[in-house]
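Section 5.1 Outputs to date
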Amino acid sequence: MPPTTQHKKKIVFIVNPVSGSIKRKLNKRTLEHHLDKSQFDYQILFTEFPGHAIELSRNAAQNNVDIVVAVGGDGSVNEIARGILGTDTVLGIIPFGSGNGLAHHLHIPFLVGRAIHVINNGKIREIDTLSVNNKVCVSIAGVGFDALVAKKYEKIKSRGFHTYFKIILQEYIKYKPKKYKLNIDGKNMEGKALFISFANSNQFGYNAYIAPHAKIDDGLIDVCIIKKVPLAQLIFLANLLFLKKIEKTKYIQIIQGKEIRLKRKKEKPVNIDGEYFKLSKKLHIEINPKSLKVIVP
């Protein structure tokens, strides 16, 4: 009998051409060199406008594509997750963005060839996602100063850590902490905060750990409430972020929960995976346990 031919998996690479690290490229030559073509038939698609990756990934899932790879940052990962959530299609990541929070959390290599080899190996992990007023969040959502920075960052063409840090310094002094009312799994609390993060992963990106002990598959949200720090201590606090010791300061409180309701005085920006959205003054955040399949090292 003739040997049976192995069924190849279908894989689609969705590239955001305006991601943070645009000096790096993903092209056919790179894939031909690194991708295991005995396993995969591949296609490369490029996004042309915000939200395009949702449409492309949804079409891929409907056409029974096995893996959709986000070639971009956390915003690209978010859009593709929105397109494939609830299907059998698996998410892959080649980090080309600015912060790349989820890629850092999952220890996905930043060298393109190594990231492709992770995909070749095909180890799959089921991770949680969040919903924020029914909008999908894969890594971190936030309100307050965090969301303001995301809004300002979105309007600037120059990307990267220096741009992000410059916005923080420009806005920090004049920003006034906002009042909030929180309900975490039925427990009420209120006060003022510089910002509040709802963390599924442990960091914003750039290895800045806002929720050092967060696990992406534990069925819990780490609610991080940050008070405004005196300017003289801001650099000290920043160092604690990068050292995974932010919880050591009196300016932060971290509470875990599964369902959170937040009430603000009015509609304000919300940061969802690094992208700015304007949502209502009432937010409903809940965990969706092990709702997304991702390829990991």
